[in-house]
Every structure is written in structure tokens, then in C-alpha cells.
Automatic annotation (TrEMBL):
Function: Part of the tripartite ATP-independent periplasmic (TRAP) transport system.
Superkingdom of origin organism: Bacteria
Domain TRAP C4-dicarboxylate transport system permease DctM subunit residues, every copy: 12-435
UniProt keyword annotations, A-Z: Cell inner membrane, Cell membrane, Membrane, Transmembrane, Transmembrane helix, Transport
Family, as annotated: Belongs to the TRAP transporter large permease family.
The UniProt record lists the keyword Mitochondrion: no
Organism: Neptunicoccus cionae
A GO term from the CC aspect: plasma membrane
Pfam families noted in UniProt: DctM
UniProt-recorded name of the protein: TRAP transporter large permease protein
InterPro entries in the record: DctM, TRAP_DctM
Length: 442
């Protein structure tokens, strides 16, 4: 049996282990260890490589980015900034067609710029936006679907944990990945808004329980407007954080790690100034930051060990040879790769997909002349779609569990997210065809 055959078998075993419930980190460690042992017939070498990977895998200043951005996102979440952002967006946009749906997308877009985690956005806006949309005549399932669909913006709009993980796995600049995500993130948010307006005009009964009554309510100019001072007080903290972190990062004044530190400190000031952070909440935030960060860093160590096993097996070079020999050009490879990611998104979580696929695919993409930042945005977009597709659809299940409404089934929420999936597929195709969308500012 050749090392290439062994490599393919090990990848299949890895996916099987994840599907039966083994945690991805342990599955990566086990498959990589056994793979090195079998391929080189040397168990001592497997232990030695495990030791070297564990020691050097995350021994870099850059990896401090992860706990700092996690801490910033958690501090922002406990400060009720998401609720205030939605209230301001609601006040400004409620007279538009599907105004509250657009407000949800707008609030998610701004919130994503300081959290970087889709699940956080889904949980926050389920509590904030869904009751308000339902009260104004939107169908509960559509309201929940809008929150789930727009929550994926947190994975693309920087700072994003998925972009950080991809940058580490593909060995590309994390700051560059953040910059590459700007235009596709705006395209995705804009596409959602256009889709919501078009859907409300073309199929009002899909969006609203009583379209005529909702239109009358929307055009009611007597509704109480939020005072300008109140609006400014609600929106200023999150906008200040966005300008501080992303402005410093994109101007080159901060490195990604420094931007994370500044952002975490700014979020702490916001939480304290809003009196939303007592001693117990601070302890909970610090514990959650530790748990999430250690989990991600352990995954990255496991992924590094897995990558070494793939290199020993010669898998990336062999697959690259097969792809080029099959006549696939860069676009053919991107189509094939994105299709695999979309299929895996139906059964695996986003981090697992990145950890399994990027170590294999990134060297191939680079060998075919593709820009790895552009390739990363395509990867993250395809992975994001998996957050909304059954049967896994973790964003949908997060919204369903947070909502806890027996009248809204998970199947109804999945149906309501399908227009968002359509927009994401269109943006994915546009980004793949026009690399300038992700390399414009690089």
C-alpha cells in the first residue's frame, strides 16, 4: 500500500471519527500520530513530532490575537451593545420596506466588526430582534431566519476568528486576511438587504403575517422617534471600537495582536462605563475567554501535527499532480473545492472543515497560482454557508434553542434562511470569478 493511499484512508478515518462524535482535536491528534507511525514505521518518530509540534505549534506572539479578540467580543456581548445597535438601526430604518429585517442585517454587520463569532451574533439578536420583528407583524419563522442568516456576517467581516484560523493554517498574514474580508463582507450585507426588500415586495405573505396592516404601521409617521442624543449615546461605543480597532489595523498603526489588545481594553472601558460588568460577570467572561481560547489553540496544535503527517505522506503534492493532470484550471479547482466544502458543511462544523481541508488545499491553490488571501475568503464564504444548511446548520440551531418557541420549528427556520443561502452562493461565485473583490486593498 502506497503512502498516498494511506493518506487518503487516514482522511476518510478522520472524517468518520468526527461524524461519530469524537472531538476534532483528538481526532486530528490520533489520525496524525497513527499516520506518521504507519508511514515511517517508527513510533518513536511519531512521539518526537508530537512533542515538537506541541512545543512550537503556538509559540508565537501572533497567537495572542485569539484570546484578545475573544475577550473583546465577550465584553461587548455583556455590555448590551448589540441591543442598542439594533434599537438605533430600527429607529432609522423602520419606515423602509422590510425595515426591521434590514435593521437586523445592519446591526449584525456592525456587531460583527467587534465580535468575530457568528454564534454570538445569533444568540444576541435572537433575544433582541425576533420579539421586536414579531411584534411588528413579521412572521416568527422569518424573523428567526433573518437573525440566523445575517449572523454569518460575523465569520467574514473582520476581526473574524475563522479568518484568524485560516491565516494560521495557510501561513498568510492575518492582517491581510482582515483587509481581504472588507469588500466581500460589504457585498454580502448589501446582498442581504436587496434580497429582503425584493422578497417583501414579491412575496409579502412569506415575510409578514398581515402585509396590509404591516404597511400601515410602517408608514405611521406618528411613531415616537428616538431623541438624537439618546441615539448617539447608544451607537457611539460600538462605532468607537470599530474605528479604534479596524482603523488602527488598516492604517498600519497596530499589528493584529496590538489591535486585539486595544480592542479588549476599549471593550472593558465600555462595559465598566455602562455598569454592565460586576465582579461575577467579569470572572465569567475571563473563564469563557480561557475556555474558548484554549480550545482554539489546542485545535491549531492538532492541525499543525496533522499537516506534518500530510506532508510526510506527500498528499498535497500528489493531489496537486492529480488536479493538474485532470485538466482542471484554477477555476475548475475552485469549483471542485467549494463543492466539497459545501457538502462537508452539511455534516461538520466550520472549524473542523478548515482544520481538515486547508492543510491539504492551500498548498495546491498556491501551486496553481491562486492568491492565498483570495482563496481564504472563498473558503470562509463556503464554510459560512454550512452554518445555515441542514442537517447541521449550527446558526439555525442556536437561534432555535435561544428562541425556545414551540410554534417555530427548526424546519421553518431552515426554510427562512434559504434566501440568505442563495445570496451567499451568488457572492461566492462573484468573489471566485473576480479576485479583485478580496485583493483590492492588499
Amino acid at each position: 500500500m502506497t503512502t498516498l493511499t494511506i493518506g487518503f484512508i487516514l482522511i476518510a478515518v478522520l472524517i468518520g471519527l468526527v461524524l461519530v462524535g469524537m472531538q476534532i482535536a483528538y481526532a486530528l491528534f490520533a489520525v496524525a500520530f497513527v499516520g506518521i507511525w504507519i508511514i515511517r514505521d517508527n513510533v518513536d518518530l511519531a512521539f518526537k513530532m508530537l512533542e515538537l509540534t506541541a512545543y512550537s505549534g503556538i509559540a508565537d506572539y501572533l497567537f495572542a490575537t485569539i484570546p484578545l479578540f475573544v475577550l473583546m467580543g465577550l465584553l461587548v456581548s455583556v455590555s448590551n451593545v448589540g441591543r442598542d445597535t439594533f434599537e438605533v438601526a430600527e429607529d432609522l430604518l423602520r419606515r423602509m420596506v422590510c425595515g426591521l429585517g434590514i435593521a437586523t442585517v445592519a446591526a449584525n454587520t456592525i456587531f460583527a466588526a467587534v465580535t468575530g463569532v457568528s454564534i454570538a451574533s445569533a444568540a444576541v439578536f435572537t433575544r433582541v430582534a425576533v420579539p421586536e420583528m414579531t411584534r411588528h407583524g413579521y412572521r416568527p419563522a422569518f424573523s428567526a431566519g433573518t437573525v440566523a442568516g445575517s449572523s454569518v456576517l460575523g465569520m467574514l467581516i473582520p476581526p473574524s476568528l475563522l479568518l484568524i484560523i485560516y491565516g494560521v493554517l495557510a501561513e498568510v498574514s492575518i492582517g491581510g486576511m482582515f483587509i481581504a474580508g472588507i469588500v466581500p463582507g460589504i457585498m454580502l450585507a448589501g446582498g442581504f438587504i436587496v434580497m429582503l426588500i425584493g422578497l417583501t415586495i414579491a412575496f409579502p405573505s412569506f415575510v409578514l403575517t398581515d402585509p396590509d396592516a404591516s404597511r400601515t404601521r410602517r408608514l405611521d409617521v406618528s411613531a415616537q422617534k428616538m431623541p438624537l442624543g439618546t441615539m448617539a449615546a447608544k451607537i457611539f461605543p460600538i462605532l468607537a471600537l470599530v474605528v479604534l480597532v479596524l482603523g488602527g489595523l488598516y492604517s498600519g498603526y497596530f499589528t493584529p495582536t496590538e489591535a486585539g489588545g486595544i480592542g479588549a481594553f476599549g471593550a472593558l472601558i465600555v462595559a465598566i462605563s455602562r455598569r454592565s460588568l460586576d465582579r461575577h460577570k467579569l470572572w465569567d467572561v475571563m473563564k469563557q475567554t480561557g475556555v474558548i481560547s484554549v480550545s482554539i489553540l489546542l485545535l491549531l496544535i492538532a492541525a499543525s501535527f496533522y499537516s506534518r503527517m500530510l506532508s510526510i505522506a506527500g498528499l498535497p503534492n500528489a493531489i496537486e499532480g492529480l488536479v493538474q493532470g485532470s485538466g482542471f484550471g484554477p477555476f475548475g479547482f475552485l469549483f471542485f473545492y467549494a463543492s466539497i466544502i459545501l457538502l462537508m458543511g452539511m455534516i461538520l462544523d466550520s472549524t473542523s472543515i478548515l482544520l481538515i481541508m486547508v492543510p491539504i488545499a492551500a498548498p495546491i491553490a498556491q501551486g496553481m497560482g491562486l492568491d492565498l488571501s483570495h482563496f481564504g475568503i472563498i473558503t470562509v464564504l463556503a464554510v459560512e454557508i454550512g452554518l445555515l444548511t441542514p442537517p447541521f446548520g449550527i446558526s439555525v440551531f442556536t437561534v432555535h434553542n435561544t428562541l425556545n418557541d414551540p410554534n417555530v420549528s427548526v424546519e421553518q427556520i431552515f426554510a427562512a434562511t434559504m434566501p440568505f443561502v442563495g445570496v451567499m452562493l451568488v457572492v461566492l461565485i462573484l468573489v471566485a470569478i473576480f479576485p479583485i473583490t478580496s485583493t483590492l486593498f492588499l
